[in-house]
Write a structure and sequence with these properties.
Layout lengths: L1 H31 L10 E4 L6 E10 L2 E6 L5 E5 L3 E5 L23 E6 L3 H4 L1 E9 L4 E11 L4 E9 L4 E2 L8 E3 L4 E5 L18 E6 L20 E4 L3 E7 L6 E6 L5 E4 L39 E3 L5 E7 L10 E6 L4 E8 L2 E8 L7 E6 L5 E5 L4 E7 L5
Antiparallel strand pairs: 1-2, 2-25, 3-4, 4-5, 6-7, 7-8, 8-9, 8-10, 11-12, 12-13, 13-14, 15-16, 16-17, 17-18, 19-20, 20-21, 21-22, 23-24, 24-25
């Protein structure tokens, strides 16, 4: 009897294990499967200060999408933080994951992060990807690779940058990518929750990095030739920059970064400058206590924020809206806002921020990324397990 029960228990355990394994595999397969174009397209009419907005759900069912790139054929590339890169058709059909994506460290805020088209994409089909790269003993760091885009796979994958040293911890990878139009690529770096690393010039955490398009270091970077500093660094003293864009009108680099509890900020980073974190900040610790290293909101030798929010909207993604003279949104800067559940629009007069409007608040979606198309429409991603790709049409100019 005892032997029989043991065999029965063993059989039950094996059956349970196989069923659980099968269920897990089914869930993974379902997450990775291609998804057809929606039979019915969901649209929303949302009020704004300048008139009603038409918001269209182009695609849904994306697992925590992090970045979207607009393809010349009207389709899209979308990263999912779990490590998948997908094509999304103009009709909303979602491809199976593309093959040959770099291995990623998909924990916490890490994973497959930004995707941008190379400046010469039309001829080269080259893209740039940022991701959390696994290291020894559970460590990870921000990395960037280039690849050529194929129909269902990447080719010629080459890592051109890796953050050093790699650190243990699940958060603050930064990872936005932007080009200045002069042969350089900028990459944002979170400080990996090692606050003082942002002040240490021999580390790449908490830095904005500037490289040539092939990953080599420009000869005119501010710390080239210094034995105590990394030559890749453009500016330092940053916390976690998840927004980056270059103003097409002026070529000025803009970045936005998360404060702790309060103190999200925009900076126009200049070469060699120190933006203060964690020594100067407008925020406090999540516990409600003062940041231990903070000495105040300003300090000589450290740059004040260009624009600051005392209450954090949690900024992620940034795009300029310019060159659309007939649009009510012309000369604006868009930013995704995660905790605020909105799309922030800043009205610009040159480099001056003159007004702020928070769009899509009634929908309450966490906006992770934002891009602007050549025809003046805004595209945004919602950060959720069934994430959406949205198209937002501007109101008619009054």
């Amino acid at each position: 009897m005892t032997l029989y029960l043991r065999r029965g228990a063993l059989a039950a355990a094996l059956l349970f294990g196989l069923t659980a394994c099968h269920s897990g595999n089914d869930a993974a397969a379902a997450a990775a499967a291609a998804k057809p174009a929606p039979k019915q397209v969901a649209t929303h009419s949302v009020p704004s200060d300048l008139g009603e907005l038409r918001v269209t759900e182009v695609a849904s069912g994306l697992e925590h999408p992090w970045a979207v790139a607009l393809l010349p054929d009207g389709g899209f590339l979308v990263t999912e933080r779990a490590g998948r890169l997908r094509r999304v058709g103009a009709d909303g059909a979602i491809s199976a994951p593309l093959k040959n994506v770099p291995e990623v460290w998909a924990q916490g805020q890490g994973g497959l992060l930004d995707v941008v088209l190379a400046p010469d994409f039309a001829s080269s089909q080259r893209i740039y990807l940022s991701y959390a790269e696994p290291g020894p003993d559970g460590s990870a760091g921000t990395a960037v690779a280039t690849a050529t885009l194929g129909a269902d796979a990447l080719g010629e994958v080459k890592r051109i940058y890796q953050q050093q040293p790699k650190l243990v911890g699940p958060n603050h990878f930064g990872s936005r990518i932007a080009f200045d139009g002069k042969g350089h690529v900028f990459i944002t770096q979170g400080e990996r929750q090692q606050r003082m690393a942002s002040q240490e010039l021999d580390k790449l955490q908490g830095k904005l990095v500037r490289l040539n398009l092939d990953g080599s270091v420009p000869a005119d970077n501010p710390f080239v030739g210094r034995s105590d500093a990394r030559a890749e660094i453009w500016s330092y003293g940053h916390r976690n920059m998840q927004s980056l864009a270059v103003d097409p009108r002026t070529g000025t680099v803009w970045e936005a970064e998360h404060g702790p509890r309060g103190g999200d900020e925009i900076n126009l980073p200049q070469p060699g400058k120190n933006y203060g974190w964690p020594i100067v900040t407008h925020g406090i610790d999540y516990s409600g206590l003062k940041i231990a290293e903070a000495e105040g909101k300003e300090k000589p030798g450290m740059e004040p924020p260009y624009h600051v929010w005392e209450k954090s909207p949690a900024l992620s993604g940034m795009a300029f809206y310019t060159g659309h003279a007939g649009s009510a949104w012309n000369d604006s800067l868009f930013l995704g806002a995660l905790s605020d559940g909105s799309l922030i629009r800043l009205s610009l007069d040159g480099d001056r921020i003159v007004d702020e409007e928070r769009l899509l608040k009634p929908l309450g979606w966490r906006i992770r990324d934002v891009r602007v198309s050549a025809d003046g429409k805004v595209y945004a991603l919602t950060d959720e397990s069934e994430g959406k790709l949205l198209r937002i049409e501007p109101p008619k100019a009054k």
